[in-house]
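User: I'm new to structure prediction. If I give you an amino acid sequence, what do you actually give back? Let's try with this one:
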Amino acid sequence: MTSGSEPRHAAHESVEERLAEEVVEELDLHPVEEPKKDDDEPLPSMSEQIAEQLGGVRGLIESSLPVLAFVALNVILGDSVVGLETRTALYWAIAGAVLSAVGIGAYRLARKQPVRHAVNGLFGIAVGAYLAWRTGDAKNFYLPGILLTFGQAALLLGSVVIRKPIIGYVWGIMANKGQQDWFGNARLFRTFQWLTLVWVVSLSLRAGIQFYLYQIGEANALGIVRILISWPIYAATFAFTAWAIHRVTSAQKPAESAV
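Assistant: Good question. You get back a string of structure tokens that encode the predicted 3D arrangement of the chain. For your 259 residues, that looks like this:
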């Protein structure tokens, strides 16, 4: 077909196409490509998850400050140093603990930082402070934390008895994209069963030591022990759990790849 002999509709369409292209070029109307979604984006490492759960070093310090304030004020203002009346020293210690917890939360809020750990800590401090104020006994400041820890241990133990270990569900949410398919993996299931028992022992140890000091009325020693042993035991148990799970899942990956 020679030039100029094209059908009228073909020539007409080519002119329209050229005009459209010129308009697009002139106005820069090229479609913007949407960023591709990566459904396989890797999850944070276990160490990062541990840091998140504990709130990092800063979270550990902040969670200990209200307890430290309570212990310090109760000792300094009480018979040991200043010599204020027992209940008066206790009230000042309660005020110091509550104000420090509120201050931490307000500081984080003002800097637009996460306040989840601060709010959780403030609630526990408030309940303990109320009990100590009502009874006039400093040891009751620590009672909610002790009972909560025992309750967590009982819940974990119950999950093992009914063969639905909570540590397995936690792993599924944190490291398995919310999938709970570990029930069909016999080795993982056994691992979660005994790891849940490890947590039962860890929590019972923490609560048991504190409850003994509570029973003998050693309020100041109770506060010091709570600061010194609670977080280290928690962190060590969490790290051991991460290591044990990683050991099992890493050993199973080559076998799955070979199938």
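You can read the tokens as a compact description of the fold. Here is one thing that stands out. The chain has two domains: 46-136, 142-247.
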